[in-house]
Write a structure and sequence with these properties.
The complex is a heterotrimer of chains A (391), B (319) and C (143). Chain A has 391 residues and is an alpha/beta fold. Chain A has helices at 27-42, 62-69, 87-100, 133-136, 147-162, 166-180, 195-200, 228-231, 267-280, 297-306, 315-320, 337-341, 347-358, and strands spanning 10-16, 51-55, 76-80, 105-113, 203-205, 208-209, 218-226, 239-247, 289-291, 371-375, 382-389. Chain A has a single domain (10-118, 214-389), classed as Peroxisomal Thiolase, Chain A, domain 1, CATH 3.40.47.10. In chain A, helix 1 crosses helix 2 (62-69) and helix 6 crosses helix 10 (297-306). The longest helix of chain B has 12 residues, at 3-14. Chain C has 143 residues and is an alpha+beta fold. Chain C has a domain at 9-25 and 67-138: Hotdog Thioesterase (Thiol Ester Dehydrase, Chain A, Roll), CATH 3.10.129.10. Chain C is built from 3 helices and 5 strands; from the N terminus they run βαααββββ. Chain C has helices spanning 27-36, 47-52, 62-77; strands spanning 17-24, 82-90, 99-110, 115-124, 128-138. Chain C starts with 16 loop residues before the first strand and ends in a 5-residue tail after the last strand. Classes of the chains: A alpha/beta (391), B alpha+beta (319), C alpha+beta (143). Strand 2 (104-114) of chain B pairs antiparallel with strand 2 (82-90) of chain C.
């Protein structure tokens, strides 16, 4: 049986900074802007915060963020590892802290100058300074240096096994782009595109072309997590965390699990999905909308399968039926996703999933959104969360 | 620069759009055989259309022509530029950028179009304007603006023989990687990024240096494993030896890494996950094969090669 | 006369590759190329001026690069080809001591206009891409 923190923690505030290619400010500046915006949204003073959760990759010290914001004493800080795998991982930390009483009000944040500072497209070619260095050494000498190159290797094989074509990748990219067109904070605001433009874009790593790849962005996002009791007194309708899970599956490597018997698969995400559904006592049929981590277009497809919205190899047809669109089965990445809004390492996705449940997305579907899914990155130890309305 | 300052600055630079850099200026020299021949000599150009009167007389053109790429040469300012150029709209624009910290300069694109071929005895006049200036962009060099000059070339009859668009980035310089010059001033050829060698993996790379690809084997239960690790995941034994792979393999997946290009690497390397005959997987390159001919399931054969001055790697060829 | 053949339009198809050519970037080529193109900017002939810009030595001027690229295209096509345009993206400098390899591939053939597009890459062995772009040639329809 899975550990159960169902409905023991509630998202009460969300905040994004302006997303850009050149923030012109420090990552600390971005972090405190996002946390302050989330506090304002919740109707809380920063001094209400007593805990922080972020990524091991984030460059901001919790205590600096606290001092800068005027947060007083803090009793909890926790970080989640593995790049974009930490998106709901940091939420997971916050939920556990609130559910156990280690903290009452935790700010989950991620702030990065991902375009004007260190760029993800530079990959590991700009020098690796971590314990991962032995790991990357198996790939660097051959030229596999970037996230796109690692994901391309999975994609090529998955396409061969499933016969899913780039039609489905384009549908993922196009659906998110159409959402971004309505979002003033999105990089592609008012900039629609078509198949010809998609096809003409340069090849990055076969079969991934430019518009299969997410943005590189400057910006920060934050959500504030607190107890259900406190949530009921606050400004916004609370969005309860029904289920949240992290998982690494057997034989996992960071982005390069090429040694599994069948590596065109994401068993870690399947574990997270199973545990989330069980914890929340929900099934895929209960999920009305989703924010699915989209560093690259094909990874959205694999996650649709892992979360059982369709079977293995069926995600192509699923999306080509219009599932991700506003009136589709599962309106997805309604903020424009990381492909078209900004790459804030998935935390902008938690902000959007919260808005979907509140009913305040810029692209709010016409139907009732009672439950929304939000996921973390793919190819790494990862996770996801199921959000619902606070009773 | 705050928003108001940026606005004022942009107003100042955008006022340069349409400004004339050079009014219509005839070239000091008519198109002539001597300058053409000197140009061809240095460029290693042997095209008889530029050099061989007899050939040219019998050719479709009937006479020799100037190399099209010389179009801009005829109107160049002369030796006096070594002591500086006279101020014009372009230098004033550049000066404006410099004053505001956009001191970096980088020619990024140049496009010449040729509408008419030019024969000996003609005279090429050039006129140049500042055609456009971009919005502020974040570039890999730093924040900056692109400006583009448009030069129009006309012959003695006033017909346009061609145009040139030249795009220049003016940027605020950021810290750049040090120029790849070593202490003795000799240029160093970059190599592939080396793998760091530690306790658990160093022996494997040392074997590659000696021309062999090894696979770690548990001496207790004989299970093979790669990449090397200190303990057997099947029986938890820490005793191991290794076997040498035959490097017979099959491609399980592959990609061609086209962007970004990294110094020290071949252009567009093909990377693949290869299942070795022994049963373990290895990531490597497939060489000696066009990308279009790659397929999952194709059989490959590996060999350890010296891929650059410092790096030995297994490389695989279609079997 | 018959030493010089020119490819006809019918002989060329998209995907045809041009034989790569190596250019030794010598001080002679850099300096003399600058002079042959009447480019007297000091950075192309005076090492101290080049050093002041942060580069290790004099570097090739654009007009020489353009000349090399059109030469590469017409060496392949033959002398009756008419150069229509050359569109270059500029990359890392060519500095003496480097070897620049030019490679090319036919990327478009327009049978109506008779114009062939050749994608050309000039890459040096130290810093990578020096120039990359397209040369357009009009080819005769019959030999």
């Amino acid at each position: 049986m899975v550990a159960n923190v169902k409905d023991k923690a509630v998202i009460v505030g969300v905040g994004n900074t302006r997303f850009s290619k050149e923030s012109g400010v420090s990552e600390l500046n971005l972090a405190v802007q996002a946390v302050k915006a989330a506090c304002d949204d919740a109707g809380l003073h920063p001094s209400a915060i007593d805990g922080f959760a972020t990524f091991t990759m984030d460059a901001n010290d919790e205590i600096e963020v606290a001092r800068t914001l005027g947060v007083g004493d803090i009793t909890f800080w926790g970080r989640s590892h593995y790049g974009g795998g930490a998106a709901t991982g940091s939420l997971h930390q916050a939920v556990m802290a609130v559910a156990t009483g280690m903290a009452e009000c935790v700010a989950v944040f991620r702030a990065l100058n991902g375009r004007s500072g260190h760029r993800f497209s530079a990959g590991v070619s700009e020098g690796v300074m971590t314990a991962d260095i032995i790991h990357w050494g198996w790939y660097m000498p051959y030229g596999l240096l970037t996230p796109a190159s690692w994901v391309a290797m999975f994609t090529q094989r998955w396409m061969e096994l499933t016969s899913v074509t780039k039609d489905a990748f384009f549908e993922v990219a196009h659906a998110t782009r159409e959402y971004a067109v309505n979002n003033p904070n999105a990089f592609f605001y008012q900039r629609p595109f078509d198949r010809a433009e998609y096809d003409a874009a340069r090849m990055i790593c076969d079969p991934l072309q430019l518009f299969d790849c997410c943005q590189e962005s400057d910006g920060a996002s934050c959500v504030i997590v607190t107890t259900p009791e406190r949530a009921r007194d606050l400004k916004q309708p609370g969005v309860s965390v029904r289920g949240v899970a992290q998982a690494a599956a057997a034989d996992q490597e960071q982005m390069t699990s090429f040694y599994r018997e069948e590596f065109a698969a994401i068993p870690e995400m399947e574990i997270a999905a199973r545990n989330c559904y069980e914890m929340a006592d929900l099934t895929p049929d209960d999920i009305d909308a989703a924010v699915i981590y989209d560093a690259f277009s094909p990874i959205v497809l694999w996650q649709l399968e892992a979360w059982n919205f369709c079977g293995f190899g069926e995600s192509g047809d699923f999306v080509l039926d219009g599932a991700l669109r506003p009136d589709g089965r599962l309106p997805t990445n309604t903020h424009g996703g990381q492909l078209s809004e900004a790459y804030i390492h998935g935390v902008n996705g938690i902000v959007e999933a919260t808005r979907l449940v509140r009913g305040s997305s810029l692209n709010q579907p016409a139907k009732d959104v009672n439950h929304a899914l939000v996921t973390s990155g793919v190819g790494i130890p990862t996770g996801g969360a199921l959000l619902g309305k606070l009773d | 620069m705050n928003e108001a300052e940026q606005q004022a600055f942009e107003q100042e630079i955008y006022a340069f759009v349409g400004e004339v850099v050079y009014p219509v200026t005839p070239a000091p020299d008519d198109v002539n055989e001597s300058m053409i021949r000197h140009w061809c000599e240095v460029l290693g150009e042997t095209n008889p259309a530029y050099l061989d009167q007899d050939w040219a007389a019998d050719s479709a053109r009937g006479h020799i022509i100037a190399p099209p790429a010389m179009m801009y040469v005829w109107g160049q300012e002369g030796f006096q530029v070594t002591t500086g150029r006279a101020a014009n709209a372009q230098s004033n624009l550049v000066e404006t950028f410099n004053r505001h910290g956009f001191t970096g300069v980088l020619g990024t694109n140049v496009k010449q179009e040729y509408f008419r071929e030019v024969g000996v005895g003609d005279n090429i006049a050039v006129q140049m304007v500042i055609d456009n200036i971009s919005e502020r962009k974040m570039t890999s060099r730093g924040p900056g603006y692109f400006f583009e000059t448009l030069a129009t070339f006309t012959n003695r009859d006033g017909e346009t023989v061609g145009t040139q668009r030249f795009k220049v980035l003016k940027f605020i310089p950021q810290e750049q990687p040090a120029a790849a010059a070593s202490d003795d001033g000799k240029l160093e050829t970059p190599t592939r990024i080396a793998s760091v060698r530690g306790h658990d993996n160093g022996w494997w790379w040392d074997a590659v240096d000696a021309g062999k690809v090894l696979i770690q084997r548990c001496t207790s239960c004989q299970t093979l494993r790669h990449p090397p690790r200190p303990m057997c995941h099947e029986c938890q034994s820490m005793e191991w030896d290794s076997i040498e792979s035959t490097l017979d393999g099959e491609v399980l997946s592959f990609t061609c890494v086209r962007h970004p290009q990294v110094p020290g690497y071949p252009k567009d390397p093909i990377c693949a996950v290869i299942r070795l005959a022994e049963g373990t997987n290895l990531v490597s390159n497939v060489v000696g094969c066009e990308f279009e001919d790659m397929a999952i399931g194709m059989k490959v054969k590996g060999v350890v090669e010296q891929v650059d001055e410092k790096t030995a790697l297994p490389q695989f060829y279609p079997a | 006369m018959s030493d010089y053949r020119t490819l006809t339009l019918a002989e060329v198809s998209v995907g045809d590759k041009l034989e790569p050519v190596d250019i030794d970037v010598t001080t002679g080529l850099v300096v003399c190329g600058a002079l042959a193109t009447r480019d007297f900017e000091p950075v192309h002939h005076d090492k101290s001026a080049a050093l002041a810009t942060g580069l290790p030595d004099v570097f090739m001027n654009i007009l020489t690069s353009q000349g090399l690229m059109t030469r590469y295209a017409t060496d392949w096509s033959g002398p009756e080809a008419v150069v229509r345009s050359i569109d270059l993206k500029l990359g890392a400098p060519n500095v003496p001591g480097m070897v620049m390899t030019m490679s090319g591939e036919v990327s478009a053939v327009d049978s109506d206009s008779g114009v062939v597009d050749i994608n050309v890459l000039g890459e040096n062995n130290i810093w990578g891409m020096h120039m990359q772009g397209t040369v357009q040639l009009a080819l005769p329809r019959e030999g």
